[in-house]
C-alpha cells in the first residue's frame, strides 16, 4: 500500500514507518521537516495534493504540552479534521488515527478533549476508520519512557504521593502491530484501547525500570500531591511532561480491558521484560517470533 504518515519523525511515527516499510509498504512521510506544519494545514484543500496515489493515511502527530506557538487546537483537532475530510473527499480506503487512552466521554484535559474532537469527527466522516488509543508507551526512543528511565536511576526517587497511581504501559511494538493489523483487517470501524496486559503502580513501574538498568532497589521519597502540583506550575516550563493537567490525568488513572486488543492482534499484548525497555518496535516484534 502507499501510506501517508503524518508525525513520521516522532517516536510512534518512526516505529510505524520502519515496520511497515519492512513489510513492503511504501511510506510517504510527512512532518514539519517535509514542509507540513499542522498549524497551517487546517483546511481540506491543504491536504488534497498530498493524497494523490495514497491508499491509507495514518495520523500520529501530537504534543503533550501546548504552548503559544504550538496550541492543541490546530495540531490535535483542526488539521486532523481537515485531513480526514480530505480523505473522505478523496475516497481514501483506510484512515488510522493515533489518539490517546482517556480521549473518551470522561475526558477533562485540553489534551484529551482536543484529541477526542478529532476522533469524533473521523468516526462521523468515515465509519471504516480506526481510532487507536494507546496508554503510556515504552520502548527505545520514547520521550516519556526515557524520562522515566532517568528518574528511576536517581539515587533517591521522588514519588507522587504514595506512588500508587495505576498505569497500564504498553510496548511500542504492540502499537505498531495494531496499526499494521488495521491495514488489512476485515473488521474496520473500530476504536481500540492499546493497553498492556497488566496494571502496575507508578512506584512499581519505576522500580522495574531501575532493575532493568542493573540497579539495586532505590530509596523512594513520597512527595505530597499538592506539593508536586505546586512544583509543576514552575516545572511546566522546564519539561513537557511536567504539566499540571498531566498530573491530574495520572491521578485520575485510566484503565482499559486488554482483551479487545488481544482479539484484534491474535495474541496477548507483550509482557514486561527488562530488555524491552531498550528495544524499538521492529526489534521487539522479531524477538517475539524467535
Ligand atoms: N508516546 C506515548 O506514550 C503516547 C501515548 C498515548 C498517545 N500518544 C499520542 O501519540 C502521538 C504521537 O506521540 P509520539 O510519542 O510519537 O510524540 P513525538 O515523538 O513527540 O512526535 C510528535 C510528532 O508530531 C509532529 N509535530 C509536532 N508539531 C507539529 C506541527 N506543528 N506540524 C506537524 N507535525 C508536528 C512531530 O514532528 P516534527 O519533527 O515536525 O516536530 C513528530 O513527528 C501524540 O498525539 C501523542 O499524544 C503518545
Question: How would you describe the overall organization of this protein?
Answer:
With 290 residues, the protein is of the alpha/beta class. The protein has one domain: NAD(P)-binding Rossmann-like Domain (Rossmann fold). It contains eleven helices and twelve strands. The strands form four sheets. Strands 2-1-3-4-5-10 form a six-stranded parallel beta sheet, sandwiched between helices. Strands 6-9 form a two-stranded parallel ribbon. Helix 3 links the parallel strand 3 and strand 4. The longest helix has 19 residues. The model has no long low-confidence stretch (mean pLDDT 96). The site of NADP nicotinamide-adenine-dinucleotide phosphate has 28 residues, from helix 1 and helix 5.
Quick overview:
By secondary structure, the protein is of the alpha/beta class.
Amino acid at each position: 500500500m502507499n501510506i501517508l504518515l503524518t508525525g513520521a519523525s516522532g517516536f510512534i511515527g518512526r516505529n510505524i514507518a520502519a515496520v511497515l516499510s519492512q513489510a513492503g509498504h511504501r511510506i510517504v512521510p510527512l512532518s514539519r521537516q517535509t514542509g507540513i506544519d499542522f498549524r497551517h494545514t487546517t483546511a481540506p484543500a491543504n491536504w488534497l495534493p498530498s493524497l494523490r496515489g495514497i491508499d491509507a493515511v495514518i495520523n500520529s502527530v501530537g504534543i503533550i504540552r501546548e504552548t503559544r506557538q504550538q496550541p492543541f487546537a490546530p495540531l490535535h483537532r483542526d488539521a486532523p479534521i481537515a485531513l480526514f475530510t480530505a480523505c473522505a473527499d478523496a475516497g481514501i480506503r483506510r484512515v488510522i488515527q493515533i489518539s490517546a487512552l482517556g480521549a473518551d466521554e470522561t475526558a477533562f484535559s485540553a489534551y484529551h478533549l482536543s484529541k477526542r474532537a478529532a476522533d469524533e469527527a473521523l468516526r462521523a466522516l468515515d465509519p471504516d476508520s480506526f481510532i487507536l488509543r494507546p496508554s503510556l508507551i515504552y520502548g527505545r526512543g520514547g520521550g516519556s519512557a526515557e524520562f522515566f528511565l532517568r528518574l528511576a536511576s536517581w539515587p533517591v526517587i521522588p514519588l507522587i504521593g504514595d506512588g500508587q497511581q495505576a498505569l497500564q504501559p504498553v510496548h511500542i511494538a504492540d502499537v505498531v502491530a495494531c496499526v499494521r493489523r488495521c491495514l488489512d483487517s476485515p473488521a474496520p470501524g473500530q476504536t481500540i484501547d492499546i493497553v498492556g496486559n497488566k496494571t502496575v503502580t507508578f512506584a512499581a513501574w519505576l522500580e522495574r525500570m531501575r532493575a532493568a538498568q542493573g540497579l539495586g532497589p532505590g530509596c523512594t521519597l513520597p512527595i505530597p500531591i499538592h506539593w508536586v502540583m505546586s512544583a509543576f506550575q514552575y516545572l511546566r516550563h522546564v519539561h513537557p511532561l511536567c504539566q499540571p493537567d498531566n498530573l491530574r490525568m495520572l491521578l485520575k488513572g485510566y484503565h482499559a480491558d486488554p482483551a479487545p486488543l488481544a482479539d484484534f492482534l491474535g495474541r496477548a499484548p507483550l509482557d514486561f521484560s527488562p530488555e524491552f525497555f531498550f528495544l524499538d518496535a521492529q526489534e521487539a516484534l522479531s524477538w517475539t517470533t524467535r
